Known about the structure:
The structure holds 2 protein chains of 2 kinds.
Chain A: H1 5-14, E1 23-25, E2 41-45, E3 58-61, H2 67-74, E4 78-79, E5 82-83, E6 87-91, E7 97-106, E8 111-117, H3 124-129, E9 134-139, H4 143-153, H5 159-178, E10 181-191, E11 197-199, E12 203-206, H6 215-223, H7 229-237, E13 240-243, E14 250-254, H8 257-269, E15 276-279, H9 290-300, E16 307-314, H10 319-332, E17 340-346, H11 349-358, E18 363-364, H12 367-377
Parallel strand pairs in A: 14-16, 16-17, 17-18
Antiparallel strand pairs in A: 1-6, 2-3, 2-6, 4-5, 7-8, 7-10, 8-9, 10-11, 10-12, 13-15
Chain B: H1 3-7, E1 10-14, H2 19-30, E2 34-39, E3 47-48, E4 51-54, H3 57-64, E5 68-71, H4 78-87, E6 92-95, H5 102-114, E7 118-121, E8 126-129, E9 133-136, E10 145-152, H6 155-167, E11 172-177, H7 192-197, E12 203-209, H8 214-224, E13 231-236, H9 260-269, E14 273-275, H10 278-287
Parallel strand pairs in B: 1-2, 1-5, 2-4, 5-6, 6-7, 10-11, 10-12, 12-13, 13-14
Antiparallel strand pairs in B: 3-4, 8-9, 8-11
Helix pairs in contact in B: 4-5, 8-9
Amino acid sequence: xxxxEHDAKSMLSSGGIPVPHGFFVTSMDMLPETQPDGGxxxxxxxxxxxxxxxxxxxxxxxxxxxxxxxxxxxxxxxIAGHTVHAVRIEPRMHAASEAYISLSVSPATRKIQxxxxxxxxxxxxxxxxxxxxVRSAQAAATANAVATCILGLTEGMHDAAAxxxxxxxxxxxxxxxxxxxxLLEINPLFVFADGSWCAGxxxxxxxxxxxxxxxxxxxxxxQKASFYPDAAxxxxxxxxxxxxxPAGEVGLLTTGAGLSMLLIDELRAGGLRPYNFLDVxxxxxxxxxxxxxxxxxxxxxxxxxxxxxxxxxxxxxxLGAFARLLLEARAAVPALTVPMVIRxxxxxxxxxxxxxxxxxxxxxxxxDEAVLSLRRALGQAS
Amino acid sequence: xxxxxxxxxxxxxxxxxxxxxxxHLRLMRASGTQIVAVVSPTMRVTDVDTxxxxxxxxxxxxxxxxxxxVAFVAAEQLLSAIREALQAGITGLVTPTEGMPIxxxxxxxxxxxxxxxxxxxxxxxxMAVPGIGKLGFLPDVSLRPGMLGVVSKSGxxxxxxxxxxxxxxxxxxxxxxxxxxxxxxxxxxxxVPFYAADKATRALLVIGExxxxxxxxxxxxxxxxxxxxxVYAIIAGATAPEGTTMGHAGAMVYGSxxxxxxxxxxLRAAGVHVAVSLAELEQQMEHGQW
Lengths: 382, 290
């Protein structure tokens, strides 16, 4: 889960990493009545996307009086397809130099990729391409190995940046492992004339699978669910559901990430508009229809949904039991009146057919045939 | 990496006395898998369908000579289950558990390498050599003995593809689900030497999906070793929105990394036939020279 900059900086701060003193604002009445200390201000859009600066998501206000108009111009605006619901306001920092550091999990080597530069505030890939001073190495996946690796990479760098990066590196390495991070990037790392430093920006990705043991993440999802809707939904319901096309016409009741993704690709290639992605995990239903009821309620909210397509290839799931749960869920969501096309394959498919037939529904075991039925249900000639 | 050896090995099932574990144990046995032990620290039962239950991996290995383990344990206990199996001398591990924390997977991968063992998972439906045995829960309706090697990130998509091909008489030699997690025990590229050498495999089917760089790494490995058998592929997620995790933890496009276009181009440059739909895949494979 990618964190908003404000939340990432709260996490850094809790780990003893200095950050500019900033505050989180979702409406004007959250602004302090008296002017806080600072000479010049930065208003930063809090969105789950990178590259804000180039898109007008980071604005300077030379005086406190200039802050409010900048906030007003930013709140409610869409940047890179994300509506700005909050901004972070920070005093402007006057750094002597800017550096760069990032730590990330490298799946291919099962190590931690460390990248450093004595030049920060620019895109690191571009800096690297232009022959800038970018240093990188991989370390074993322990805090000590990463800190040692960072120290080694700072050798021969100019004094202020080297000292700041080595000091920051140790704390960042600890934070990376303590919080189950998969990416931690500080760009820029401000280095001041007196040798002190702070994190000017922070890009942090936390492993959602570690939510159970990460109190910071759990609290964040509990308190700020509206800022992390997908992650909060997954944490609450333990399956994956995403609206992929708000004007979509086909609600999908599917399981398995790969097959669900490919089905979306194929429906789209055939000119149909699926409304949602779903990996409902039929193996986790355990005889309870509530997960299916929830999904049907969400799909019923799709203003253009005209058909429901249920495609389940069951590895271990008993399809007879699934068919009964499906009927139960359908009865519990009368708002969803659209026709349903059902395709089931696997354990207990014959029992499922009997259950569905008794309820006046038909099913097929062939995916291509099911897609043809879906087209007919949408009133399209095949 | 010897998946054939795994399927023909002496298998213990960690967590095999639970409801889910016991159900899969029966299905694995019915597929021919030689299951010699169940490990359950609580020891509520003494056997599962006559397979003896042991309180620890060490006891199970000592009494039965088990060399392969399939673990049905909760995500938060998976790292310690893997460590315990390795310490008992297990050399092959298959772990279907979903939701293993990435940092745990990093530690597990190191422990597996240090022990000189092999690990398939996490988040895998398992592997099978049809007619010999299966480890995990690949569905019987899709399994059919044949000459096609299958490697897949996605369970369900591989079930669907193999089911369609099996209906046309195309069966599998060795099928390995590597799983949809970003950090895992076995990656596509790790299996290239095995499939290159496996005489019963005449062609390879790769079932990929967006996110990460496993397909690109595979393409590089196929070229580097001049893989001589035909390779077919299908990749899910061509139309997935950027920056969104599509169900599998590893399935996310971010910037230009992990895109469908990058994977398709890399595989095609390595001579792989990349199909854009299941129907096209069936056509290509049925009419392919292999």
